[in-house]
Design brief:
About 25% of the residues lie in helices and about 25% in strands. The chain is of the alpha+beta class and about 250 residues long. A hairpin with a 6-residue loop joins β4 (about 110-115) and β5.
């Protein structure tokens, strides 16, 4: 019983700290150093969770994605965690409409550019280096899908502020962050800006550092996609995208 109260108290502390970050996009680090989080592979998809300390640090395939959470599998989010998750989504919609980022050309004009070796993530180097977190007004990435009418905004992606920072789970078990592990290292400038692929020997990163592990990231989907608004997977059936966008236009006006 005492152990359960201690876990509940720790959960409340983490939520309070994460909420302060959501309110201002800055503040204290809500991570709990030493906690062995729960983890599961999102590529390939695994149903079972294990401890983060048990996942392989080396990648024998090209790339793997690992979801990580402080909350045991099956944990039910609290009312406050649900409210915080909903507020993050609402703030994201408001930010997009206020800045016109549903228009791909406007996003490009505002400094977003395609991430190296990617087709859907557009990064903003200024926002990556502004020392803010969980701030939909300054998202590190916007996600676009090609359609016959042009590039359609489907969501944004938020990144931590340093390579070893843990993503704050403002929505408790609803907001599960993830990171990538690559067999061939990526070149990171200032710890968070991906500028390309390193050579096989891990060298060749001019003014950057080679890393086999990405910083942690969180998707915030702005379409009603399978898997929910914070789904890790990027996959969307091309045939489903027009319907998802039409539904958002009906509900949100963009």
């Amino acid at each position: 019983m005492g152990r359960q109260r201690e876990r509940d108290a720790g959960r409340r502390r983490r939520l309070a700290c994460a909420l302060s970050l959501l309110a201002c996009g800055c503040g204290a680090d809500p991570g709990v150093p030493g906690d062995d989080r729960y983890a599961r592979s999102a590529m390939p998809i695994e149903r079972e969770w294990r401890r983060e300390s048990e996942i392989p640090r080396a990648q024998d395939r090209g790339m793997a994605m690992w979801e990580v959470s402080l909350h045991p599998p099956g944990t039910t989010p609290t009312r406050d965690e649900r409210r915080a998750a909903e507020e993050l989504i609402e703030r994201s919609h408001r930010a997009v409409l206020a800045r016109g980022w549903q228009d791909h050309e406007q996003a490009l004009a505002d400094g977003f550019h395609l991430m190296p070796h990617d087709i859907r993530h557009y990064q903003n180097d200024e926002f990556l280096l502004d020392d803010r977190i969980l701030d939909p007004d300054r998202p590190e990435f916007l996600m676009y899908y090609p359609t016959p009418e042009g590039m359609a905004l489907t969501g944004l992606m938020l990144l931590v502020r340093s390579p070893d920072e843990r993503g704050p789970q403002v929505g408790g078990p609803l907001t599960v962050w993830h990171y990538h592990i690559w067999r061939q290292a990526r070149c990171y400038r200032d710890g968070v800006i991906n500028v390309g692929v390193a050579r096989r020997d891990g060298l060749g990163c001019r003014e950057a550092v080679a890393s086999h592990r990405s910083p942690e990231m969180l998707h915030v989907w702005l379409v009603d996609r399978p898997g929910g608004p914070f789904a890790t997977t990027m996959y969307l059936e091309a045939a489903s995208v027009p319907g998802l966008l039409a539904k958002r236009t009906q509900e949100r006006g963009y």
